[in-house]
Design a protein that fits this description.
With 125 residues, the chain is of the alpha+beta class. The chain is built from four helices and five strands; from the N terminus they run E-E-H-E-E-E-H-H-H. 37% of the residues lie in helices and 14% in strands.
Length: 125
């Protein structure tokens, strides 16, 4: 996986991974930072049962940014046939709405269950 100047090399064959790193370092200025812990706001936790990927830190940062740190979580499934409309009678900050939706879109990497509600509210951006 490659993102701008960050590269993650992973696989079950350690000698092959080492060979790939050696080949890449021949043409690129790179250094091995060891085991992966964070990548693009995704935390990697190593457990005896495997690897756990979490966005907990990202979510906490997002809640703080949007002033929702102390909100109570609730289960609010969105009905598939729900019709939303532009005029709710309440004013909102358009820039903040776009930032919030954009931040939540990134959460769908680990939470595909958020995709449908995000698609529904994204139509108002």
């Amino acid at each position: 996986m490659l993102y701008v100047d960050d590269l993650v090399i992973t696989g079950p064959d350690l000698p092959e991974m080492s060979r790939v790193k050696t080949q890449l370092s021949g043409g690129l200025d790179m250094k091995d930072l060891g085991d992966l812990h964070y990548f693009l706001w995704i935390e990697v936790i190593y457990t005896p049962n495997g690897i756990l990927l979490t966005q907990r830190h990202y979510v906490l940062n997002m809640l703080y940014k949007f002033g929702m740190m102390y909100c109570q979580s609730v289960s609010t499934p969105l009905h598939q046939n729900l019709k939303l409309c532009h005029d709710s009678g309440e004013a909102y900050n358009e820039k903040r709405f776009r930032q919030t939706v954009g931040s939540i879109i990134y959460l769908t990497i680990r939470r595909p269950d958020l995709s449908y509600p995000i698609i529904m509210i994204s139509q108002f951006m």
